[in-house]
Design a protein that fits this description.
This protein has a domain of 60 residues. Helices cover 80% and strands 0% of the residues. Helix 1 runs antiparallel to helix 2 and helix 1 runs parallel beside helix 3.
Length: 107
């Protein structure tokens, strides 16, 4: 018997792939403005997919007094935080290129 398709898991997998693609692109671009644009795209992607939702869940957790609901929200907070940390780790792994000031490279 087949397991049911996990739409959210599939979405997370695709977001992580997109983070990797952006990180690789960021490491290949030499122009500071282009690198900044890619960095901004990465930050916006993580915010849209995980961070904004995390902030909403934290606010709901803060306002909820039912212990069972608070436990569910804590699990959601942990899962969203894990995804954000995964995105950060992927970014750091695939975008290691450090920008050097122009004064050092032009000499």
């Amino acid at each position: 018997m087949r397991r049911p398709f996990d739409k959210y898991g599939y979405r997370v997998k695709k977001v992580l792939e997109q983070v990797k693609d952006l990180a690789l692109l960021h490491s290949c671009i030499s122009q500071p403005e282009g690198r900044k644009n890619i960095q901004t795209r990465f930050e916006n992607l993580v915010s849209q997919e995980f961070r904004n939702t995390l902030l909403e869940v934290v606010e709901r957790h803060r306002k909820t007094f039912d212990e069972d609901r608070r436990f569910e929200l804590r699990c959601k907070i942990a899962r969203l935080s894990k995804y954000i940390l995964e995105c950060k780790a992927i970014w750091q792994r695939y975008s290691p290129w450090e920008e050097k000031p122009f004064s050092q490279t032009s000499k």
